[in-house]
From TrEMBL:
Pfam families: HTH_1 (PF00126), LysR_substrate (PF03466). This is LysR family transcriptional regulator. PROSITE patterns: HTH_LYSR (PS50931). The keyword Cell membrane does not apply. Residues 283-302 are annotated as: Disordered. PANTHER family: HTH-TYPE TRANSCRIPTIONAL REGULATOR, HTH-TYPE TRANSCRIPTIONAL REGULATOR CYSL.
């Protein structure tokens, strides 16, 4: 068999295609859950391995060279073939009475997972599913320990020791009761003001808290919380009662906002968007009902 020492591994090919699609090494790194320096180093290693420059770099981003575009076309064919083979192998291992263990962050478990599991039941009625809700930190621990077949987390990066893919997007919002002083502010609040105000927050270890802490880190971080609560339901109840400003998933307060029980407060110059990811142990690929559920999440995102 001919040597294939010039062919990058599948992970490198996935990175190559992500940079081509997004036009940015940084964006591709964020999507794949790696650091930008690690992604840049891997691309340079690919270029040395192949022997040609794959991208033209500029302050506006990264654009594939002619050779890079051709390699990307081949890479897509290789990845498509690998996924087809993976699906075929998984199909050999599947059983009609398969079981699926899922652990998900509260936001995903409460607002997205029900629809996905209904679709899974329709597609694979013989699958017995157990679902546990936990903080994103706990989700990662369960998946790493082999206590779940598939996990769903909130946060900017894929947790260490896991592989993952973005399955949905979400945005954190600041909400208050209609009688709160912030509800009358047409221009909202500044990031500095939000950072300096005691808020009602999720406990540490949650994806919501991680994203907020990261977003406000350049503004001195969050002030000591007014209250620290362990569930989205408790957060919403505190906000409706007028206890103070709450930072929570936009998915979780859609009904309260449309019904006028809560008011969203704009925050100037602050990005509170976040990806929601499916995760599994590094070096493995979801198989059986886990692979099927992952495919359903991707269909719902399309």
């Amino acid at each position: 068999m001919a040597a294939t020492h010039r062919v990058p591994d599948l992970g490198a090919l996935e990175l190559l295609l992500a940079v081509v699609r997004l036009g940015s090494v940084g964006k591709a790194a964020a999507e794949l859950g790696v650091t930008q320096p690690a992604a840049s180093a891997r691309i340079r290693s690919m270029e040395r391995q192949i022997g040609v420059a794959l991208f033209e770099r500029s302050p506006r981003g990264s654009r594939p060279t002619r050779a890079g575009a051709l390699v990307a076309e081949w890479a897509q064919q290789v990845l498509d073939a690998a996924r087809a083979m993976d699906a075929g192998i998984a199909a050999l291992q599947e059983r009609q009475d398969a079981r699926l263990r899922v652990v998900a962050s509260l936001t995903v478990a409460e607002y997205l997972m029900p629809g996905w599991l209904v679709a899974l039941h329709e597609a694979r009625p013989g699958t017995a599913v157990t679902l546990r809700a936990a903080s994103s930190t706990e989700v990662a621990e369960h998946v790493r320990a082999g206590k779940a077949d598939l996990g769903f987390v909130e946060g900017a990066r894929t947790p260490a020791g896991l592989s993952g893919t973005v399955v949905a997007s979400d945005r954190l919002v600041v909400v208050v009761a209609p009688r709160h002083a912030w509800a009358r502010r047409r221009d909202g609040v500044t990031a500095e003001e939000l950072a300096g105000t005691p808020l009602i927050l999720r406990d540490r270890g949650s994806g919501t808290r991680e994203v907020l802490d990261r977003a406000l880190s350049s503004f001195g971080g969050t002030a000591p919380p007014l209250l620290q609560l362990a569930s989205t339901t408790a957060l919403k109840a505190a906000a409706v009662s007028g206890a103070g400003p709450v930072v929570v998933s936009e998915l979780a307060v859609a009904d309260e906002l449309s019904g006028g029980r809560l008011v969203a407060v704009p925050v100037r110059d602050l990005d509170l968007g976040r990806p929601l990811r499916a995760v599994w142990p590094s070096g493995q690929h979801p198989a059986g009902p886990a692979r099927h559920l992952l495919g359903l999440t991707r269909q719902s995102r399309a």
